[in-house]
Design goal:
Helix content is 45%, strand content 13%. It has 17 helices and 12 strands. Helix 3 packs across helix 4 and helix 9 crosses helix 12. The protein is globular and about 60 Å long.
Length: 369
C-alpha cells in the first residue's frame, strides 16, 4: 500500500462511501475503503444506496435479485442483457431509478458535511453522475468499479474519476466517457496480503476430515447461489479431492451439500484469510470478492459454472487476463486442477499474475480529488 497522501487544505477529508447490500461483496469493499481512509486520518462514512430509495424500492430490488440468482438465473440473464450488457441502439438506463434517491443523498451529504462521494455499486454511480451533471451534488464523485467486466450501468459522464481493477477496464471507461481513470487494482483487507494465523487450524480440520486429499473450495457467494454445487462436490470427491463448499447464508444449500459423501459444507466463514491460505484451489462462479481475496492470498482460481450475466462476463475476463482459468466442463475442471500442482511452474505463474493486479490504494486517489 502506498504511503498516505498529504493532508488536503482545510484538514481531514470526509468521504461518503456508497455501497449496496447486494450479497456481501460491495459492503466488504466499502468497509475496506473506510478502514483505509480512517488509517490516513480521514473521517469516512458508509451508506447503503438501496436505503436511500423511497417506497421500499431498495428492499424490493434486493429481494428480487436474490431470488433470481438463486432460483431463476435465466430471468437475471435477461435483465442483465437488457439493462447492463453493452450493445447498439437505445438501451434502458439506470438513471430514472437512481435519481429517486437524489434528494436523500444530497441531504445526507449536507448533514455529514461530506467533501467527496465514492461509489462502489453501479446504481450509486448512476446517482452521483446524474447529480453531478446537474449541479446538485457539489462535491467530487469517484467510482471504484469493483467488477472485472465493465457493464454499462457503471458508466456516467458526470462522475469526476473512475478507479478500475485492470488496464483493460480503465481503457473501456476512458473510451466510453472520456473521464479521468486510474488503474488501482482491487482492495482487500490486510489479512489477505500476509501470513494468515488461522491457516493452521483449517489445515488440521481438512486433514481430520479427509487425510491426504487436497482441499478445493467451491464458492457460492454470500447468498449461496451456485449451479449444481452438489454435483461438482461429487465430481471432486471422485477425483480424490476434499470439496469444501462455501454455502454463505443459505442453510438449504448447506443441508443439500452436506448429504454428499466426503464433502465439507460450510456456512458463513469469518476467517477467510486462513481458509483461503489452507486450500489447494478455489472454484469460483462470479469473479467477485472471494475470487479477488484468493488472488491476494496466492490461491489459484478456476472459473466453473459461472452465474449468468455479470458472473459469466467477469469469469471470462479474469481468464482472459491469465489470472484464472475457465473450465468449460467437468473434464476441463479436473484437468485444470491437475495442472496446479504444488511447486509447479503454472501454479507459480498464475499466482504471480494475480498478485500483480494489486497496484495502489484507491483511497489515496480519492483523497486527492
Amino acid at each position: 500500500m502506498p504511503s498516505p497522501p498529504p493532508a488536503p487544505p482545510g484538514g481531514r477529508r470526509r468521504p461518503l462511501i456508497l455501497s449496496a447490500s447486494m450479497g456481501a461483496g460491495h459492503d466488504t469493499v466499502a468497509a475496506e475503503l473506510a478502514r483505509r481512509a480512517a488509517a490516513y486520518g480521514h473521517e469516512p462514512q458508509v451508506a447503503d444506496v438501496l436505503q436511500l430509495l423511497p417506497y421500499g424500492l431498495g428492499g424490493g430490488l434486493r429481494r428480487s435479485y436474490q431470488a433470481s440468482v438463486r432460483h431463476f438465473p435465466w430471468a437475471y440473464a435477461g435483465v442483465y442483457g437488457a439493462f447492463l450488457r453493452g450493445g447498439s441502439g437505445p438501451r434502458p438506463s439506470g438513471v430514472p431509478l437512481a435519481r429517486l434517491a437524489g434528494d436523500r443523498l444530497t441531504d445526507l451529504v449536507e448533514r455529514l458535511d461530506a467533501d467527496v462521494v465514492v461509489s462502489v455499486f453501479h446504481l450509486a454511480a448512476q446517482l452521483t453522475g446524474h447529480l453531478r451533471a446537474r449541479g446538485r451534488l457539489r462535491v467530487p464523485s469517484a467510482v471504484f468499479l469493483v467488477d472485472f467486466a465493465v457493464h454499462r450501468q457503471w458508466l456516467h459522464p458526470g462522475n469526476d474519476r473512475y478507479l478500475c481493477l485492470t488496464d483493460g477496464a480503465a481503457a473501456e471507461v476512458r473510451a466510453a466517457l472520456g473521464t479521468p481513470v486510474v488503474t488501482t487494482g482491487p482492495a482487500v483487507a490486510p489479512g489477505f496480503r500476509g501470513p494468515a494465523p488461522g491457516a493452521a487450524r483449517w489445515r488440521e480440520r481438512f486433514a481430520g476430515q479427509a487425510p491426504g486429499r487436497p482441499p478445493v473450495l467451491l464458492s457460492a457467494g454470500a447468498w449461496g447461489a451456485a449451479s449444481r454445487p452438489d454435483a461438482t462436490a461429487r465430481l471432486l470427491t471422485g477425483a480424490g479431492c476434499l470439496p469444501v463448499v462455501l454455502c454463505g447464508r443459505n442453510p438449504r444449500l448447506r443441508e443439500r451439500v452436506a448429504r454428499v459423501p466426503g464433502a465439507l459444507a460450510l456456512d458463513w466463514v469469518e476467517d477467510m484469510p486462513g481458509l483461503l491460505s489452507a486450500a489447494y484451489a478455489l472454484v469460483d462462479n462470479a469473479a467477485g470478492q472471494t475470487a479477488v481475496q484468493a488472488l491476494a492470498v496466492g490461491l489459484p482460481v478456476i472459473g466453473y459454472r459461472p452465474l449468468p450475466g455479470h458472473g459469466v462476463d467477469g469469469v471470462r475476463r479474469m481468464s482472459g487476463l491469465g489470472v484464472s482459468e475457465l473450465a468449460p466442463d467437468a473434464r476441463g475442471l479436473l484437468a485444470a486442477l491437475g495442472r496446479l500442482r504444488e511447486g509447479g511452474r503454472e501454479r507459480a505463474e498464475r499466482v504471480a499474475r494475480g498478485r500483480a493486479l494489486f497496484r495502489a490504494d484507491p483511497m489515496a486517489y480519492v483523497a486527492r480529488l
